[in-house]
Specification:
alpha+beta
């Protein structure tokens, strides 16, 4: 299985209709979907498909035709994602209608084609299961931990600021977790603790 860490996009025009596809990590799906609605208020449709793992490691899939004829847009995108063995990500496709109807077969081909294009242009990474790790640090350790996450190219953790320090939450693969604990445990006496 494969996934993405960053956002990728591609655009095509078919019979005067513009299709703009975004391949994104599942963690950004809701935020980017909302952003696209604001950025493209005149778009006729924002079709989407997503695949992710639930807490039991089962694949969950969903798609939306967003007003296109039933089964002509979301399901073809989902099928392309299955074929590429994508997981923990989604594809959003913004469509501007160009005045020429594509028909059901044309829509299936158009949405499948742009989904395939955005996947081919993306930098796909082998999927690694991640685990949420929570920990606490005092404020004077913050810069050291920020530096660690930047150096190791680990997605920046969520933080909650408390009176004496910060509560962090970060998703780590098994290898990243081992690396992190090797680093963090040296600060146990200075104000680091796992939660």
């Amino acid at each position: 299985m494969q996934s993405v860490k960053d956002e990728f996009n591609e655009q095509i025009e078919i019979k005067k209709s513009s299709f703009i596809a975004y391949l994104i990590p599942i963690s950004d799906f809701e935020t980017i979907h909302a952003r696209l609605k604001v950025e493209h208020p005149k778009a006729r449709h924002i079709v989407w498909a997503k695949r992710y793992l639930n807490e039991f490691d089962q694949i969950v899939e969903n798609s939306s035709d967003d007003g296109e004829p039933k089964g002509t847009s979301g399901p073809p995108v989902l099928n392309v994602m299955r074929g590429a063995e994508l997981i923990e990500c989604g594809i959003l496709i913004v469509r501007y209608f160009g005045g020429i109807k594509l028909g059901t077969g044309g829509l299936v081909r158009a949405y499948g084609s742009i989904a395939k294009n955005v996947i081919e242009s993306a930098r796909l990474l082998p999927y690694e299961k991640k685990e949420n790790v929570r920990f606490y640090t005092v404020y004077n350790l913050v810069s050291r931990f920020e530096h660690f996450f930047e150096n190791e190219n680990i997605s920046f953790p969520k933080r909650a600021y408390l009176g004496e320090g910060i509560e962090w939450e970060v998703s780590l693969s098994e290898s990243e977790k081992d690396l992190f604990l090797d680093f963090a445990l040296q600060f146990e006496r200075d104000g680091f603790r796992q939660i």
